[in-house]
User: Fold these one by one.
Assistant:
Number 1:
Amino acid sequence: MKRLWISAVLAAGLALPAQAQDVADSVAPEMASGNSDKKMVTTEKFMVVAANPHASEAGFDVIKAGGNAIDAMVAVQLVLGLVEPQSSGIGGGAFLVYYDAQTGRMTTFDGRETAPASATPELFQNEDGEPLKFFDAVVGGRSVGTPGTVKLLYETHAKLGSMPWADLVAPAIKLATDGFEVSPRLAKVVNGDQKRLSRFETTRNYFFPDGKSLPVGHLLKNPEYAATLKAISEKGADAFYKGDIAKAIVKTVQNAEGNPGKLELADLANYKIKERPVVCAEYRSYEVCGMGPPSSGALTVGQILGQLNDYDLPSMNAGDPNAWRLIGDASRLAFADRGRYMADSDYVPMPTRGLIDPAYLKERGKLLSGDKALPKDKVVPGNPTWEHAMLLADDESIELPSTSHFSIVDANGNIVSMTTTIESGFGSRLMTNGFLLNNELTDFSFRTHRDGVPIANRVEPGKRPRSSMSPTIVKKDNKPVVVIGSPGGSRIIGYVATALIANLDWGMNIQEAVSMPHLINRFGTYDLEEGTAAEKLQPALEAMGYKTNTRALTSGLHGIVIADDGLQGGADPRREGLAVGE
Ligand code: GLY
């Protein structure tokens, strides 16, 4: 106990050498003012925060017309698939964390893609059993999992929505028919991915009309997407999972030149979304709740925060290198557990409860009590308790930053926290019927075993690849107080955890918290966001023993704080998002 108290005093910055304290105090204001002068939005009744103004406005219109958060979710997602096609869409999957104001119940819905029934653990290996090069696996049909987003939208709407389905599909049909102006971000990412996008004719024709990369401001129409949505509007999810659209998806996947995939009509016809219990971890006086397996999101965010419970972060500030040592090493320890234990728990026994057991995290948190970066040999998986233990080897899977997150609070206090993806930017690069197909299967480990011991996140037929998506709702005194999530591959976990620390511990408002420069550590190297105050912490972090790497860290944190006197919204300045409401 005494040791812990001493470390807490050290951690509190009381013993920081004068010079280090100077760094902390001079960097802290810049960290809080963030990357931009984007202002927090405040409203009284409802709010929608999404990655593109068209999508936020579609959600706004639905709620203004009397719809609820689930209704708005449908409109937002279908518009995002049009205006931000690189990040999410009906060819992909999503996780929804939902809070029902009337019952006070929180639940989650899993619309994650599944591996085809004919997929084998060696899906991403060559004839010699060696893993394929990452992008050789991504581009083409092999990486395409059975999409889940349409069923997620349709079935949760049938259960929880209030407006007619067709009315919610209509805004995206109209925008696809009339056209929308290509945004600077879309133009930039199309131009940057020219070689891969040009590999397939349909994709090439859409993103490079007349052979030229789509310019900013170009009025882009997508009549094929409008036709697909019209069918879904009239016939529901079956129009997507059976019939002509399903046939077109399967044909596109199986005939992908150079890298065909295994998806079949039966995979689409048999696809099911799953309602799963919410996973909540304790953090100070809060409960941080989110998506459990097959996502590693809520568990890893919860582990990071849970290990920090005994450290007095609230008395430090965002410029304090010691705060970042604690956060960085808590994250490294959490990622060690993630790599060993986390995968689709329908297929692999997992110590889900043990991983966020407060007693386990308290013990693991004691590893952070020093004043230097943890040596590599100390960053190994822990031993959480579990009912059905299994010997597992450490994972090896790459996740690229893409994806989109939106947060919605409706006029009755219902909440949607949804993270949605087609995996890497533009997914598999295959396009059919006006939408891109995901490459979600490359979120699996390409290797199946290590030294004869199986890897939890290996490919198996029908299994869902492990995700990092972390749609989150935070509760205090059993009432929701923060809604947040982000894109960013496996860095999503760090983006969400640090934005929560900024808001809950350091008193930043939600806009400041999502704008705060990033410092992210997953596997040892500290990633520092280039061109920001985070770079100023580099010497101190290197003196503690970290390797550092300065780079762009393009989160897309979209958050809402539910305060006593209304709602406060923050949209990440690194993307094109917008908070709107009334
Ligand atoms: N493909 C991004 C994720 O699921 O984490």
Note: The pocket of glycine is lined by residues 399, 403, 421, 423, 443, 467-469, 489 (CB under 6 Å).
Number 2:
Amino acid sequence: MQRKLAVANWKMNGTIEKLQDIESLTKIHQQSQVGIVICPPATLIYQAVQITNNSNLQIGGQNCHYDTSGPYTGDISADMLNNLGARYVIIGHSERRNSYDEQNEDVYARATAAINCNLTVIVCVGETAKQKKQNITLDVVVTQLKECIPNIQDARQLVIAYEPVWAIGTGKIPTINQIHLVHSHMRKQLNKRFGSEIASQICLLYGGSVNPHNATDIFAIPDVDGALVGNSSLFSQDFSSIIVALESSKF
Ligand code: 13P
């Protein structure tokens, strides 16, 4: 059975004081049976790793370059994240796809680099509002899975986050049935590609306006193994409630 995972994506939020939130989460959830990952801005990763050493929280980056080092001003490599003690990295978030025109092939190259540096890659997929209207959600997601995900040997190398673009930061979420449909379809695709032994253990997250009020219903959906949380993860009590909802969900 795949591990349940609650991932906080802080995006471009948080300065040094915000590290206190991580410290309190390590205390509150020290006995947690679910995986907890915080992806703070790169500027906080080193200290966040020090705080979470000897706890069951882990730290992740929000992006990485496809190359190990070189003339890429402003970029960070997977190797550098690993060197800091990060264990995860989010790749292909729709905000990166939109703002920096990252295409599926970029996502694939970055995800490959991350896996080669022993990071667990969290690959984001999801349809835009226009694609949803056109009724092509499943096609979009299948293509993204095909084009973004490198080969893996072990389910622990990969996490997939289904994040409908129109649900991010809007307070809107798909219906329970829609989420179920996409997640079970993703599992089927992964089965075809990696075989059931690996596919059944890949962690599939839902992301987009997850909050303490909707988390329990979302975690009750088959094939939803956790959440990638933006806004609500910036309030440690809210993120904590989401973790508790995941802990209480059926394994
Ligand atoms: P919100 O939870 O703010 O909708 O953001 C989701 C997200 O983008 C997580 O990566």
Note: The chain has a mean pLDDT of 97.
Number 3:
Amino acid sequence: MSQEPVLFPKDFKWCVATSAHQIEGYNTQSDWWDWEQIPGKIKNGDKSGAACDHWNRLAEDIDLLKNLNIKQYRFSIEWAKIEPNQDVWDSEAIAHYKKELQILSQAQIEPIITLHHFTLPSWFKKQGGWEWSEAPVEFLKYVQFVYKALGAPGQIWITFNEPMVHLVGGYIAGATPPGEKREISGIIRPLKGLLQSHALAYHELHRLADLVKRQIKVGFAHHLRIFDPNHSWNLLDTWAANTLDQAFNWSFIEAIETGVLKLNIPFMFSVEEKIEKLQATQDFMGVNYYTRDKVKFRFDNKQWFELVTEKNAPKTDMGWKIYPKGFYRILKKIWEKFPSKSILITENGLADAQDNQREKFIKDHLTALHQAIQEGVRVENYCYWSFLDNFEWIDGFAPRFGLFEVDYTTQTRTLRQSGKVFSQIARDNGWRR
Ligand code: IFM
């Protein structure tokens, strides 16, 4: 076996990621909390409840982070805790996040701060969420409040985590709040509301930072998937895969780059609309990469594709195909499309309760990432999802993504074997093959 080392650039940063609702516990004023109370919405009837009780275990958990030899930690601020009712600002909640930043800074771990990671305050959702005409201004007030309290030089801010997953889940699949099952055109209104909210937040974060002469970076964490035709010789499958790739992966990103939202599903639906102040409002490309889907053309009056399970392919506990080459392909594609953009890997990981696939998964994905870097793609970091096992949304607590295993009855954290390997990779900035 070759002993050739896989070494990353000197300034490459190792990172792990989480989100507030998935680990903190008792996010009682949020739309997700409300959703979990409805029977049948979450697998096994799970509810986030105390989750990993991270809210009460901040210092201990950040101590655990130190074991991982990471330089960055990506986490989210919970809007529903900061502003539990409209214009009511919770001073304890914001003090909590201030403390989190202080402890991280003492541990010399740089924060990557997400402002919205799937959850909304219940009051905001009741007003219509992203379809409410006041949504951008209300989001802006939250962002101003948070930045004034937590802003510091050099920070990286993510306005929205996986906006397309959030909107498709909530407005087309109807599996997540607000639970709307619409045709594809029904995504446009909330999509515009979200894009307008981002645009206002982006400019305001920079304005506030500029006032005190701080450099900051602001962007998104995009969920990017590979869509390949079920049969590459089948022109209709190829058409369906390319159409889905454009609609899900690139339309949103191109809207941010150009300021014009274009969504086009031939023969069905098309929109082209300029969004005020949106153009060029991401300072980096945040990438969450997990899997690929095979796409089969199918036509009935509602649907034009179906996603096909690949038989005999290695899969995670959630049935997601493990496809490291897709990571390389996505990175190269971003680089070709947006050559001046620097990339952050804001998430990559898998559900693997037995921990018998994780080490290989991480190394294979890092090898793909390494190859992309060798070929000139500018990638600054790698965040493994996730630091801890946590509440996996509609799949409840069963999927185990953590480098640390969590025993939810005792809240004991145990570093998995793959977690040890990850910490060595972070320490050595790579490994020998
Ligand atoms: O747990 C989620 C996370 O909240 C967003 N990205 C994908 C992860 C795994 O499904």
Note: Residues 19, 22, 162, 288, 347, 385, 392 surround 5-hydroxymethyl-3,4-dihydroxypiperidine (CB under 6 Å).
